[in-house]
């Protein structure tokens, strides 16, 4: 079996050695080279033709973003960013995902990295193996989406259902997929709650970046916050997001409890919380590794929600939506480009239309 070949690009020799050490015992992964800066990396890519690149975000001679832009233009390939857990690191990483990086690993300090060696190794190995499976057409997925982000904002005359709610779950590739949906929604769109697998130090910056380019108001969810039309609420990177009904309103609840489906925040936790009012929910499961959200989506479908999964052709990684598909937890599978218009059209359906649509499922 052909090994997955990896090129490690980082200006720190300590980090390069940690990455190499984490991968040395993997029988199906081989580190074929290392580079201390993008100039050296450029030559090694030409000579070694690696399958996957790990890339530090901040390096001398040429910064990681400039290098990534050139790489995606000239030689698209799966890139996993190694990012510091800082505001600056979060911004650079989110920009890298917009450019075309397929994933990232939040990189603690060297001391912390040495202390959490096994956890880092497991994450690194999993993400490299997953990145190597991505088809070449998807290396440019983020660039394709970015070029289409200036679509006309969808017209929306207002909700015909009280407290209609849209719930979105995503992981790998999800930051750009969520952006593609939200940027096309009008300012008075149905309220949206979102669980994206993302570190604590990234979720607030992610919400801010979306808020700066969307018509709706996007923010990191706060405990006890009332859910309003025209707003999107993103789960903090270290808390589960739930929705509860109090009186006539819906509210965000944040819960600091154990991981569910190996994640915190977990999509399953969000989806499960919506079951009591599922008939007024549209749940969407987007690109991502693993199975988080699939079981929760099945529960929502069985309780009367409209459930959508992103189709394989438009997904960076068809893990989570693929698991939902296997469970028959979806009402429809749909291309990313059409999700925004689909959820808006459904939100406007009258009761007769709703019954007809539900019968089709």
From TrEMBL:
Q: Does the keyword RNA-binding apply?
A: no
Carries keyword Phosphoprotein? yes
A Pfam family cross-referenced in the UniProt record is CheB_methylest
Catalyses which reaction?
A: L-glutaminyl-[protein] + H2O = L-glutamyl-[protein] + NH4(+); [protein]-L-glutamate 5-O-methyl ester + H2O = L-glutamyl-[protein] + methanol + H(+)
Recite the UniProt keywords alphabetically.
Chemotaxis, Cytoplasm, Hydrolase, Phosphoprotein
Q: Which family does it belong to?
A: Belongs to the CheB family.
> Mind telling me what this protein is named?
Protein-glutamate methylesterase/protein-glutamine glutaminase
